[in-house]
Specification:
Layout (H helix, E strand, L loop, with lengths): L10 E10 L13 E10 L6 H4 L19 H11 L3 E6 L5 E8 L9
Length: 114
């Protein structure tokens, strides 16, 4: 039924090249200096409070009811990012949506990286 559907939201996906310099603060802690490809997934959803942000990458943590999710999605995303030597972070606040950033180190000789 139409009344049961959540309101439509917006998801924006972008890919950018970033150059991280030594001693330069970044939204992703502990990135070594060098060239990176940053994948950003941003939404205009309800956002998350600090307590939720602290737990979102834990296996089986979910804010959904038991019939709507297992809480494995973001734990799997982090494991995949880790296995590729990538770094992942999230910026979110209640009522302001969320932005997930995944930074992959560029490989030498790849044309799209510096």
């Amino acid at each position: 039924m139409a009344g049961d559907r959540p309101a439509a939201g917006i998801i924006k996906i972008s890919v950018t090249e970033d150059l991280v310099k030594a001693n330069e603060p970044d939204t992703l802690a502990d990135l070594a200096p060098g060239s990176y490809v940053r994948l950003t997934v941003r939404d205009n959803g309800c956002g998350m409070d600090e307590e939720t942000l602290e737990r979102i990458f834990q296996p089986f943590f979910t804010t959904k009811t038991s019939d709507r999710g297992t809480g494995l999605g973001l734990a799997v995303v982090r494991a995949i990012a880790d296995s590729h030597g990538a770094a992942i972070s999230v910026v979110s606040a209640p009522g302001r949506g969320s932005a997930f950033h995944v930074c992959f180190r560029c490989r030498p000789g790849v044309a799209s990286c510096r």
